[in-house]
Amino acid sequence: MNKRSVFTAVFLGLICLISILMIQYIWINKTIHAQKTEIMIQMKEDSLNISRFTQKAHEALSSVLNEISYTTKDSSDRYGAIRQISPNMYYVEYQGDLEPLYLENMLKREFYSTHITNDFQYALYNCFHDSVKYSNLIRFNVDSLFETTNIAIKHPLISFSSNSHYFAVFFPGMITHRMDDVEDIGSPWVFLFLVSILIITYLTYSVYVIIRQKKLSDIKTDFINNMTHELKTPIATIGLSSNTLLNDDFSHDSERLKRYASIIYRENKRLESQVERVLNIAKMNKNSTPLKKSLFDVHEFILEAKETFDFNLEELGGELNIELGANKYCVFVDPVHIKNVIYNLLDNAVKYRKDDYLKITIRTRNDKRHLIIDICDNGVGIKKENVNLIFDKFYRVPTGNIHDVKGFGLGLYYVKTIVEQHGGMIQVKSVPDKGTTFSVFLPLRVKDLE
Ligand code: ADP
Predict the structure, then answer these.
(1) Cα(397) to centroid of ligand 1, in Å?
(2) Which residue minimizes the CA distance to atom 19 of ligand 1?
């Protein structure tokens, strides 16, 4: 999959996502609008019904109050004695004493005669005891009209401290639409938001998978290119030499014969070792390498390595400096593998040099629990976006089609695997065009820590 296809797939995915979200947005908006209109109509109807109901309730309660005044022979002014607390709740003040059942009967009769057929609850408040002395729920039944239930419902508004007697009437079944109901319709947006998050997560994950697949396919292509490049030269040399051996007459020139035979032998060995190296590292899994551990003097080895590298660097134009600052420099490791690790890092410092004078520094230091080996170079460096990938199997920093530096992208994978198998870790700091520092942390033995 090339870059263009990835871009097209992501672009089409985004268009689909935006279209789905837009359609959802339009539909939800339409539905909300329709619901709001419906509630507004309902509210208007409600308010008409309520004002009609209020009028009838007032009428009924006035008749009840008149009758109470008549019975108790109370001739005081009854103005303001009926108070509407909410569309379905009334307080009625009266003088004297009142029997609950007598009140209940009057309420039933008056509500029936004013065509109020709602369930209602009434409660009698006694100002001497500052408490509700009786309350009851009355249900309307088409056959038997109002039925007493003997259920005393507690309602926060039914009792309020007062200096006078009063009874409260409450119509529990009356549903009124409030303006809040219109505002509450905002909840579909939560749904839309969640769906969007889900779709975005899905799309992001798909893009991640596509990009990862692309990277894997790039790595595969790179690996095949490198492999072809690395194997072609020895195969071509063997082909040429064997062709000469076949076609020329060597009966009088045993020296030449030997030379061609040794070329074939040498190139064949090179091929063999390359294939072996690739196969061995490719097969290597974490925890799979058997380690033969012994005490290893890292400083002694670094001095040895310096001798080998000084010789090569003299030819290439460069130098290897060492700063052996660690106090504890003997570690319990597999010397063969740790030597390979250091050689791999030094080889890379040489391979990825710039045209300038190459400067490599090997530094050793200790932290509380490790011996740390820093290998610094002033080479080409690694871009930030590639740094995290360089330890992956077969990964090589892309260089387009230029294969001037040979390799299979296995060196650092090997280095990391071995270091981690020893209980250590590897860190890398790199600045493009300035250089790279690899830091290998090898754990010290507990008895060496004191
Ligand atoms: P190889 O060298 O065979 O490509 P490695 O696993 O050793 O594989 O390295 C992986 C990649 O990391 C290399 O392709 C190279 O781009 C980058 N790299 C490794 N060491 C250095 C270094 N010292 N300086 C710059 N880049 C490096």
Answers:
(1) 7
(2) 348
Place of tokens 């990277």: 215
| 308 vs 298: CA distance, rounded Å | 15
Mutate to test the pocket of ligand 1, among 281, 359, 382 (most ligand atoms within 8 A of CB): 382
* Residue nearest atom 20 in ligand 1 by C-alpha distance: 348
Distance in angstroms (rounded) separating the CA atoms of residues 64 and 449: 98
Q: Which of 233, 216, 211 is nearest to 403 (CA)?
A: 233
Which residue among 397, 403, 418, 429 has the greatest number of ligand 1 atoms within 8 angstroms of its CB, and so is best to mutate?
A: 397
User: Within 10 Å of residue 51's Cβ, how many Cβ atoms?
Assistant: 11
Please state, in angstroms and rounded to a whole number, the distance separating the CA atoms of residues 407 and 413: 12
Give the C-alpha distances (Å, rounded to integers) separating 93 from 64, 130, 131, 245: 11, 14, 15, 129
Q: What would the pLDDT profile of 371-402 be if each residue is shown by its tens digit?
A: 999 999 999 999 999 999 999 988 888 776 55
Q: pLDDT digit string (tens) for 216-262? A: 887 787 778 777 777 887 898 899 989 988 888 888 888 888 988 99
Q: What is the DSSP string of 396-432?
A: ---BTB---S---S-HHHHHHHHHHHTT-EEEEEEET
Q: How far is the CA of 409 from the centre of ligand 1 (A)?
A: 7
